[in-house]
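Support case: user asked for a sample of complex input and structure output to validate their parser. Sending the pair below.
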Amino acid sequence: ETGVTQSPTHLIKTRGQQVTLRCSSQSGHNTVSWYQQALGQGPQFIFQYYREEENGRGNFPPRFSGLQFPNYSSELNVNALELDDSALYLCASSLPGTGSSFFGQGTRLTVV
Amino acid sequence: DQQVKQNSPSLSVQEGRISILNCDYTNSMFDYFLWYKKYPAEGPTFLISISSIKDKNEDGRFTVFLNKSAKHLSLHIVPSQPGDSAVYFCAGRRGDKIIFGKGTRLHILP
């Protein structure tokens, strides 16, 4: 039990639609990162938020966007969904300067 | 550019024996290296980490070794138990950004 919770656990969307995924961080963790894990691959860094501002971004197009709220919960938004967006989306929370990040159970997104 | 490489997609080890999972990296700027374990339908679970200035860290059955000159690290699990069967991800951390390898599936045989 990491204290990081994600919703929903599973989701099916149609190509072209928009989706919002949600994450509640572990208590006290002010940094949240989002990752995309395609089948057979390791998680790929999408972006990170620290104190409600984007603090780093991986190689993902602008249709992937995010928000972090004052209570450190977070959202990942994906517009104009493509079939290749089908993946497990993971949220991780951490405290800066510590040696580990703690992951939620993920949201399995299927785009049809 | 794959900064963290796990070249063995899978590994089978007899219960009770030592499991050794290997990982190579190319980015010298990582400040920590981490190992995560993942079961199906769950998020990665943090196992153990090592600072880039250390060469060994031990936590119970898990020991991580870091060889900076070879840019190589390994995770040793001893003794291996059935519950250790999972996918193991090696990762390098720079700031709060984590770069993962593709994972190694460990099978513990009875």
